[in-house]
Amino acid sequence: MPVLELKNIVKNYPDGENINEVLKDISFQVKKGEFAAIMGPSGAGKSTLLTIMGALLSPSSGTVLLNNQDISHFSKKQQTQLRLNEIGFIFQNSDLIPYLKISEQLQFIQKISNKKSTDAIAILKQLGLGHRLSSYPNALSGGEKQRVAIARAFINQPDLILADEPTASLDSKRGREVVQIIQETVHQQNKAAVMVTHDERILDLVDSIWQIEDGKLNKVNK
C-alpha cells in the first residue's frame, strides 16, 4: 500500500473571467522506502502539487490518501495536526528559528507534537552536527543549516518527507551531500519521500523520477 497516493488531482484558480487550471488530472504514488523526484520548469505546478501533498492546500477535485486515509478536504485544525505528526518538510531555505540553539530547534518540534519522537541529540550527532548543538543558526554554513532542517523533518518519525528544492541555496558539492543524507535516511528508516528539484545532477540518488509540465505529471524511466 502506498504511503501517499494522489488520484485525479485537479487544482484551479480564478483568473479574471477565466479559470486557470494549474494541475490537470494528476495521479501519483510513493511507497515506504521510496525516494521520488519531481522535475519540471518554473510555473509547471511543482510547488502547488507539493503543497497539496503536504496538506497545506486542498485540491479543487480528486483524492489525496495518506496511509489510505483521505486527507483531501481536512479542516485547518486537522491539517495542522497531520503536518505536525505525519509529514516532515524540508524547504529551500532551512527556515530555522534564529533565537533557538540547534538542539532547541528539534526539541521545540517535540514539545508541540503528540507523537513519540527520536532523540534530538542523537539524530543531530548522526548527521555530523554534534559540535553544533549549542550554536545558533547564524553560526552555521548553508549545508549545516540544511542538515538541521533534515533532522527536524525526521524528528517525529513521520511516514512522509516532502523536500522543496533542498539544494537550491547550496553549491553542487553541499547540495549532493544533503540529498545523500535524505536518501540514506529514507532507505534506513523505510520512509517515503518526495523531492521537487531542478537539479538533474542528483537524480541518480532517487528511486523514481516524475516530470510535470503544463499541469500534467508523468513518470520518467530511470
Task: Describe this protein's structure.
- With about 220 residues, the protein is an alpha/beta fold.
- The protein has six helices and ten strands, in the order βββαββαβαααβαβββ.
- Helix 5 packs parallel to helix 6.
- The longest helix has 18 residues.
- The chain is globular, with a radius of gyration of 17 Å.
- It is a peripheral membrane protein.
- InterPro entries: AAA+_ATPase, ABC_transporter-like_ATP-bd, ABC_transporter-like_CS, ABC_transpr_LolD-like, MacB-like_ATP-bd, P-loop_NTPase.
- It is found in: Cell membrane.
- Pfam families: ABC_tran.
Strand residue percentage? 25-35%
Structure class: alpha/beta
Shape by Cα distribution: globular
Average of per-residue pLDDT values: 90
Output the radius of gyration: 17 Å
Biggest sheet, spatial arrangement of strands: 6-7-8-3-9-10
Keywords: Amino-acid transport, ATP-binding, Cell membrane, Membrane, Nucleotide-binding, Transport
Subcellular location: Cell membrane
Main location: membrane
Protein name: Putative hemin import ATP-binding protein HrtA
